[in-house]
Each structure stands twice: as C-alpha cells, then as structure tokens.
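Field log, afternoon session.

UNIT: design team B
ACTIVITY: writing a sequence onto a fixed backbone
BACKBONE:
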C-alpha cells in the first residue's frame, strides 16, 4: 500500500486485516490521541473484549510546524527497531511491537494507556517511588548491551549502520545544542526573561562548554541511545514504567539519555515555583525530586557496573581502573547534557508544560529564571561532579 496518512476509520481497517490481533467481525473504536510534536497516534479498542492496541504513524512532515518542515518517514523504522531491541533487554519496560509497516511508516504496538505520562503525573504532584529503580534498569541494560562493552564488535557496528538517523539527530543538534545559545528565529521564550537569555548568549565560557557537549553528541557512538528520553516519553503507574517514542534513537553518548531524565525532573523542580502554592508542600516535593535525581543515577550506575563486571565481552574493559574512570566521565556527561536540555526547554522552540502551564507571566518568569540558573550551573560545574549528590548540591546552591 503506497503511503498515505490514515484516518481513524482507515486505522481500524488496517489493524483488522492483520493476523493474530482482532477477529474480522470485531467492532472496534478508533481515536487519534497524538499529543506529541511529530506523529499520528491511534488508540483502537474492541468494546466487547476490552482488547486494545496503539497505531503510531509518522507524517512526512513535523506536526508542530506543518508541511513546511518535511521530515523523513524512516523515523518509523528507527522507532520500531529501537522498540524491539529495547524490548529484548527490558521486556517489562517497553511496549511490545506487534507489527511494523515500512510503506505506511507505522507501528502497531501494545497499548500502555493504563499508565499516565510522567510529565503530567509530576505536574499533578504525584510520587513514583519505584521509578528510579526501573528507569535505572532501562538505562543500564539498553545502553550496556548495545555498547562496545556488551555487544560483539560486529553486531555493534551493524547496529551503528542501522541507526544513523541524520534528520532527527539534526533536530537535536539545532534545537538542543545550537539555536538556544544565539538569537535564532526558532527561539521562543518569555519576553520577561530576555535579560537572562541575552546573558547566556554572551557567556563565552558557557558557549565553549556547550560546543564541546555538541561535539560529543556528534561523534561519540557509544551505545544505542533513546535520544528523546524526557518525561513525556515515559509512562508511569504506581508500580510500573513504560518507555515510548524512541524515534530519535541513534548511536550516541550514554550520558545524553541519563541527562534527559535528570533535566526533566529538574524542569519540574523549577516549575514547582508556580505549580505548588503551599511553601511546605513545595519544599517536600522538591526534596522528593532531588532524591529521585540521585536515585536515578545511583540505580543506573550500580546496575551498569554490575553488568560490566559480569557480562563485559570487551577484554580491555576489565583493565584495572577502567570502569571507575568511565563512570566518572558518564556522570559529567549526564550533568552537562542535562544542563543543555534544561536551557533549550526555556529558550528554544519546544517548551515543557511543567513551566508553560504556569498561567501568570511573572511567576512563570521566576520559575524559568531558576531553570536557567540550574541549567547553566550544571554545564559550568559538570567537571567537578563525582557523585549524584554533587548534582543535587549544584541545584540547591542556585535555588
Ligand atoms: P510523538 O513522537 O509524536 O511525540 P508519542 O510516541 O510520544 O508521539 O505519542 C504521543 C502520545 O500518544 C503519548 O503521549 C501517549 O499519550 C500516546 N501513546 C503513544 N504510544 C502509546 C502506547 N503504546 N500506549 C498508549 N498511549 C500511547
Ligand atoms: Mg513523544
Ligand atoms: Mg519556550
Ligand atoms: Mg516522538
């Protein structure tokens, strides 16, 4: 079937003709629920049995901007392949892929809408005590087993070739590492913080650090990273985590995924200024967020190092002192990438609801200034970071 964007009804017809999902006479409802920036997402359900699936279809352009911004359909292949690889390593943490259609650029997958999008949960002030352990396992396993530590060298190089993803990487290169740090037309920030944004544009030391981080993003083919691991790509329930939307996956630096999780916890931390009016409750919730930042790193590193000792195929990995230096670099990378991801959400094209949902412009500006201070401090001080409390100490110092 030649490519065309499906309607809700066509999505039903499509899943009905697939084997093993629904009976031909099944009565199905279909709803387009995509709230993301790029794609169509259909939720398809059989009322009689309660059975449901999700159909995600790439559009040949970016949905946020429209047809004037063409975007490769190959991202649907990248996403379905990345989901399958991640599912192999952490089956409980990633939706199962039932079917991928190259021509229609669509993936039929497990419906995980019994969970909520984590960004929404954090904005509502909910707590997820098992999150750190589970996302730590997601990160440790998906990143270790696709790296040169855990993969056969031929398999690793073959994977690099399947996940080049130039167009989606370019979006990150521009929107995370370039445009926010100069007066670029894509920027979109609250006019009340213009002075603080201009100070960033004029901060030579900061821009040098960001140039180095961008170069790491361009060149360090370390593992198959998710590439867009913000809290809008993470579904949570009180007991479970599901990671979706890996269309930005490519071989890149491990610290980029860890930094994305940390950045989005800290964007919510900054947003609490306007989200939680009660000072005591705000303080409590912020402590919970900082403890989660520490736990995410600690869980990641303990599981990653355990895999390293037990499973590393690369013999040089067992050289004395090697893993300690590697892990120290990773936490510094994570801090720096987290900083960039925070700054770009305040200054750049795509904001986050943790800040944007603060209705009063003045209050929002105060929260945004805090986010800018946190992001800059993480970038400028990342080379002093040794342990997770060094990251949260940086946050406490600027708050
Ligand atoms: P985009 O790439 O356009 O950001 P996402 O993959 O993030 O698309 O999906 C957009 C929205 O669709 C999600 O926020 C979620 O509400 C819904 N969604 C996506 N995948 C699933 C799934 N497997 N189960 C349930 N809902 C999903
Ligand atoms: Mg998304
Ligand atoms: Mg903005
Ligand atoms: Mg996406």
């Amino acid at each position: 079937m030649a490519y065309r964007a499906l309607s809700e009804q066509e999505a039903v017809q499509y899943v009905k003709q697939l084997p093993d999902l629904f009976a031909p006479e099944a009565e199905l409802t279909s709803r387009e629920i995509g709230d993301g920036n790029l794609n169509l997402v259909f939720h398809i359900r059989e009322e009689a049995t309660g059975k449901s699936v999700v159909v995600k279809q790439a559009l040949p352009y970016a949905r946020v901007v429209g047809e004037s911004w063409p975007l490769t359909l190959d991202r649907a292949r990248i996403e379905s392949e990345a989901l399958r690889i991640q599912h192999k390593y952490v089956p409980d943490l990633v939706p199962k892929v039932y079917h991928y259609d190259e021509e229609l650029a669509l993936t039929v997958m497990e419906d995980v809408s019994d969970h909520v999008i984590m960004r929404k949960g954090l904005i509502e002030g909910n707590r997820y005590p098992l999150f750190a352990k589970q996302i730590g396992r997601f990160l440790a396993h998906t990143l270790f087993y696709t790296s040169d530590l855990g993969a056969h060298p031929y398999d690793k190089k073959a994977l690099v070739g399947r996940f080049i993803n130039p167009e989606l990487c370019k979006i990150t290169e521009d929107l995370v590492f370039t445009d926010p740090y100069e007066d670029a037309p894509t920027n979109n920030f609250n006019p009340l913080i213009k002075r603080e944004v201009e100070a960033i544009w004029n901060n030579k030391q900061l821009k040098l650090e960001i140039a180095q981080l961008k170069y790491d993003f361009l060149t360090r083919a370390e593992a198959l990273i998710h590439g867009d691991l913000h809290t809008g790509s993470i579904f949570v329930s009180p007991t479970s985590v599901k990671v979706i939307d890996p269309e930005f996956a490519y071989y890149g630096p491990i610290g980029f995924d860890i930094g994305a999780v940390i950045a989005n916890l800290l964007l919510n931390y900054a947003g609490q200024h306007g989200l939680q009016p009660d000072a005591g409750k705000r303080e409590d919730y912020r402590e919970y967020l900082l403890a989660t930042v520490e736990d995410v790193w600690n869980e990641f590193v303990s599981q990653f190092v355990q895999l390293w000792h037990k499973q590393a195929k690369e013999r040089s990995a067992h050289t004395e002192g090697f893993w300690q230096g590697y892990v120290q670099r990773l936490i510094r990378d994570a801090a720096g990438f987290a900083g960039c991801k925070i700054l770009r959400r305040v200054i750049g094209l795509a904001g986050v609801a943790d800040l944007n949902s603060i209705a009063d412009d003045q209050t929002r500006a105060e929260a945004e200034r805090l986010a800018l201070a946190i992001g800059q401090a993480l970038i400028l001080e990342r080379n002093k970071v040794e342990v997770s409390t060094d990251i949260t100490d940086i946050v406490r110092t600027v708050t």
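LOG NOTE: Residues 294 and 389 are 6 Å apart (CA to CA).
NEXT ACTIVITY: expression trials, pending approval
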